[in-house]
Amino acid sequence: MEELNINKIAIIGLGYVGLPLAVEFGKSTFTIGYDINNQRIDELKSFEDKTLEVSKEELSLANRLEFTSDVNDLKDCNIFIITVPTPIDDVNRPDLNFIINASKTVAKVMSPGSIVIYESTVYPGCTEEICVPVLENISNLKFNKDFYCGYSPERINPGDKINTLTKITKITSGSTPEISQIVDDLYSEIIEAGTFKASSIKVAEAAKVIENTQRDLNIALINELSVIFQRIGIDTIDVLEAAGSKWNFLPFRPGLVGGHCIGVDPYYLTHKSEEVGYHPQVILAGRKINDSMASYVGHNFIRLMLRNDIEITKATIGIMGITFKENCPDIRNSKIIDLINELKSWNVNIVISDPWASKKEVHEKLGIELTTINQDNKVDSLIVAVGHKEYRSIKPSQLRKYCNNDKPILADVKALYDRQDLIDAGFTFFRL
Prior knowledge:
Number of helices: 15
Number of strands: 13
Mean pLDDT: 94
Largest sheet: 6 strands, parallel
Oligomer: single chain
Distance between the termini: 56 Å
C-alpha cells in the first residue's frame, strides 16, 4: 500500500471516548463526528457536552470538525475510528451489538483503501474474528487487500482533567506492518505523551483488557481485606496507611467497583479464556468479591441501624451520590444501584442526591427521582457513596445537621472523612 492520503476521519460514537478524540483530530484534520443519537448531535452543534469531558472552548477550537447522524456524510472518509460501548449482558457475557452495528454502518460507506480502527474494549481476537467478517460481508471488500484494520484502545479516565486524551500514552496496532505504522503516525499527530506500537492487533486488545483486570483484582484484594479487618475490629484505612509507609506498597483503597470499564472488562477476558478451554479462577474470584461489596455495605448499614434502635421500616436513608465515580455525571453500571436494591429489600425509605448526575437521565434510565439532602430536607441516616468534591468539602458536623435521628448512622464508603471527626459529630459510622 502506498502512503495514505487522509481524506476525512470519521469518529463513530460521540460519548466519553469518541468526542475528545473527534475534537483533537478536528483541530487539524477534516473530521466527521457521527452518532445515531440526534439529540446528542444537536447538543454538540450548540457547543454543549453533557458528559462534561469537553468544554465549549475546546469544541470551538475544533474548527475542522463537523457533527452528523446521517451515514451518507461519511462517504468521503477513508479513516474510520469506532468508539462505541462494549457492555456486558445480564449474565456477564460480552454484548457486541454496538460494535457489530457500528461495523455495519462503516461497511456501507467505506471505499477501497480505507482503514477501520477500533477503540472499543474487546477480548483478544475480536477485531479480526468478529468485526472484520462484518466489514467484508457488507462492503464486498477483501480484508488486507481492499481495506485494513487497526486497534488503539481508549485509555480515557472520565472526569480526570489532568490525565486527558493527549497526555496518556496511546497503544497502536495495525493489520499489517505498513498499516501499523500508518495508524501509529496518525495518533502521533495528536498524542503529546507519545505512542506505543504493539506487535499485533491481538496484543493491543489484550493489553487494554488486562489494564482494568489488574486494577479490578487489586481493588478486590483490598475489599476482601476490608471484610476481614471489619470482623477483627480494626480500621482498614488505618492498616493501609501503616502498610503504605513502605516504598513499594501499592496505594489501592477499598470501594464499589462499577462503571463501563473496570467492572466490565475482566468479563471480556474470562469469556475468551473459557472459549479457548481455560476456566479462569483468580480473575473471576476478584469479580465476585467486587460485585458483592454493594450488598456488603448495605447489610452492614442496616445492622448498625438496628443496633442503634432505629426502626428500619419507618426510617429514611439518604444516599449522597449515584454516579459510578466522583466528579463525573456517568451513571453507567453504577454499583450504587446495587446498594439501593439491597436497602430496598429491607423496606426502608430512600432519598438520593447527586450534584453531578442529570436528573432527567437518572429518571429516564433508572426510574429514580433525585432530590436534595440538607438541613431543610433531613434523613435518619446517611450514606456518602461517591467521592464528589462537593461532599469532600462538607464537614461531618454539617452532615450531622442533615440527620434528625438521635443516633444516626453514616456510611463513609469512600473514606472521605476523618474518623474522629465523625465520632465527635455524633455518628455511628461504617467505612470499607
